[in-house]
Amino acid sequence: MAARIMIVEDEPAIQQMIAINIKQAGYEAICAGSAEVAIDVINNILPDLILVDWMLPNMSGLEFARRLRKHSRTQRVPIIMLTARSDESDKISGLDVGADDYVTKPFSPRELIARIKAVLRRRAPEALDESVEVDGLLFDPVNHRISVGNTEIVLGPTEHRLLYFLMTHIDRVFSRAQLLDRVWGDHVFVEERTVDVHIRRLRKALENVGKENLIRTVRGAGYRFSANSAVDSGELKL
Ligand code: CA
Description:
238 residues; alpha/beta; Rossmann fold; 2 domains; 5-stranded parallel beta sheet; 4-stranded antiparallel beta sheet; elongated; binds calcium ion
């Protein structure tokens, strides 16, 4: 369940240096040499985080970040801007368009990885592979162990990813399209009812430990993972 990090950088040596360090940190690296190429890739696969160089040929990193923030599908993807500029005003315009953080070149690989980790912790906790517990259900992604007390649950790979995503985003409603993007990484070639099939399998597996009610169907909206039975009416209360 390694986080997918996209690197949008036109200088091959820097792109490669970043990619090597990202892979060493246990993440998956996807490289693009321009914003245009990055947009093509993102239209198929949504990354967990995007590193964007400010100075790119044609479309600038700033304009690219602005476009990502404008579209509903990409507006929540964490963005870190990379730049040689250390001007305070540049930093502010980067953060203004919705970048989550800002790293000034030259930077050490250790610093970059630390920043990536901090942004992921804040914005995409499912990408960090940390243990999580909800209502006695324990998910340990490093040891691939899901358990309640001494009883272990074994899941297929998709249910495994789906459960971890839901457990790291409790009390939030996700539509089928959002789950396809965040769990499958693909909203184009997978049908929405595929989500229902895997939710059904996951509930069946959770039944064995009496935890199937943690997954709520929110009518007309999607699914929510929640330990709080007080709000379980099938309807979203605002
Ligand atoms: Ca550049």
